[in-house]
UniProtKB/TrEMBL annotation:
Protein name as catalogued: phosphoglycolate phosphatase
E.C. code: 3.1.3.18
Domain of life of the native organism: Bacteria
Pathway: Organic acid metabolism; glycolate biosynthesis; glycolate from 2-phosphoglycolate: step 1/1
Species, as recorded: Prevotella fusca JCM 17724
UniProt record similarity statement: Belongs to the HAD-like hydrolase superfamily. CbbY/CbbZ/Gph/YieH family.
Enzymatic reactions: 2-phosphoglycolate + H2O = glycolate + phosphate
Enzyme class (EC, first level): hydrolase
């Protein structure tokens, strides 16, 4: 694997195993609204482009449902209180980030998770490793638009040359393409290799340590 100067990571499904807490908050909100609950595997396929879209997919009728906004608000409230219940880094991720920092690399997280949750999780799990963490905000377009990645590069004072984007989904593949960055697709996240191949992924790693340059 080529060694880079700047590493920009997706969060859910890439650095953190968050599916259990996302599913729990989804079903809490659906129960509150009297709607059918979703399986963990359904939630796995709903995630990847922000929690609002997750709930649009989970709620029958999506945004056309009269109770959508209230249900989405319940999800957000519950998730902010319970996003650390079962969430944890994937095996090898803390060691990877520590080694990258030891080598003097610049590290950022760019997520479609709402901004407060992105900041909380980054500070809790990677307080001395991640230089910049950017979540969803109303003032900037979310992935796969390039805006949040370019903002991370700006805050890092890092050029696109020598930077790489790392994620687990088709949205991440498109994000990297839209930014003009190479993309490393991880195979421990929310999407499998066949799905990623169908959506244009070409460089894969099965373990975090494979991201380190030779």
């Amino acid at each position: 694997m080529k060694e880079f100067d700047t590493y920009i990571f997706d969060l859910d499904g890439t650095l953190l195993s968050t599916l259990g807490d996302l599913a729990a908050s989804t079903n809490y909100a659906l129960r509150w609204a009297g709607m059918p609950e979703r399986t963990v595997e359904e939630v796995r396929m709903f995630v990847g482009n922000g929690v609002r879209l997750l709930m649009e997919r989970a709620v029958p009728g999506g945004v056309e449902n009269p109770k959508f906004e209230e249900t989405y608000a319940r999800f957000r409230e519950h998730y902010m209180e319970h996003n650390l219940d079962t969430t944890c880094p994937y095996d090898g991720i803390p060691e990877l980030l520590c080694e990258l920092k030891r080598r003097g690399k610049k590290l950022a997280i760019v997520s479609n998770k709402f901004y407060a949750a992105t900041q909380e999780l980054a500070c809790h799990f990677f307080p001395d490793m991640i230089d910049v963490a950017i979540g969803e905000r109303e003032t900037i377009r979310k992935k796969p638009a390039p805006d949040t990645v370019l903002e991370a590069l700006r805050q890092l004072d890092a050029p696109k040359e020598g930077a790489v984007y790392i994620g687990d989904s088709d949205v991440d593949v498109m994000t990297a393409k839209n930014c003009g960055l190479p993309c490393i697709s991880v195979l421990w996240g929310f999407r499998d290799k066949d799905f990623l191949l169908e959506h244009g992924a070409s460089l894969f790693v099965e373990k975090p340590e494979e991201i380190l340059g030779d």
